[in-house]
Design goal:
Helix content: 25-40%
Structural class: alpha/beta
Number of helices: 4
Largest sheet: 5 strands, mixed
Order of helices and strands: HEEEHEHEEEH
Distance between the termini: 91 Å
Strand content: 15-25%
Length: 190
């Protein structure tokens, strides 16, 4: 039998029996955003260091003592673009920088992409590029936007994927409670 005949028989056989598993499909193609998280609430947040668009170094461990929100986004991502104005107005402009820190991290984007986007939209939040995903890859394997609220002791208090208003409101409540707790005077031991 010639090669063409063999290929035709194989194609017919696949129609009736089913083709073998597609090895080109990535193993995590069917995972949910939650299944792609590499850290969970209660874990110590992995440290990272990035330089913001303003030239300031943001080191997560150096933020100990503050409540921190780490937001991973991309300029091309519709839910990310939808969420950013809420981050600016309802979180960044609301919480005192003495007790709170925020970093918006451009996954796989550099300053040349992020800078014009920030300027066009008039954001005042600190943004930093993560072109090689060094920071992002410590937190998740896929999906943006992602938010991680980190307590003053470095523990992850809350995380979310995507942008849904009720989830965003829940994140604001977690930040409020954590900031209030960090400002409360310590009670002497009895």
């Amino acid at each position: 039998m010639n090669r063409f005949g063999l290929l035709v028989m194989l194609a017919v056989l696949c129609l009736f029996v089913g083709c073998p598993h597609d090895e080109t499909k990535a193993p995590d193609d069917d995972l949910t955003p939650a299944e792609t998280a590499l850290v969970a609430v209660g874990d110590t947040a992995p440290n990272f260091e990035l330089t913001t668009l303003d030239g300031e170094v943001f080191n997560l461990e150096a933020q100990r003592g503050k409540v921190v929100l780490v937001n991973f986004f991309a300029t091309w991502c519709p839910p990310c673009r939808e969420e950013l104005p809420f981050l600016e107005k309802e979180i960044w402009q609301r919480f005192d920088s003495e007790n709170f820190a925020l970093i918006v991290v451009g996954r796989e984007e550099d300053d040349d992409v992020i800078g014009p986007f920030v300027e066009k939209n008039g954001y005042s939040m600190p943004f930093a590029g993560d072109p090689d995903k060094a920071a992002y890859d410590r937190y998740a394997t896929r999906f943006i936007p992602r938010n991680f609220v980190i307590g003053p002791d470095g523990t992850i208090l809350y995380q979310s994927q995507g942008f849904e208003r009720p989830e965003f409101d829940r994140m604001v409540e977690v930040i409020e409670a954590a900031v209030a707790a960090s400002q409360a005077p310590e009670q002497p031991a009895a």
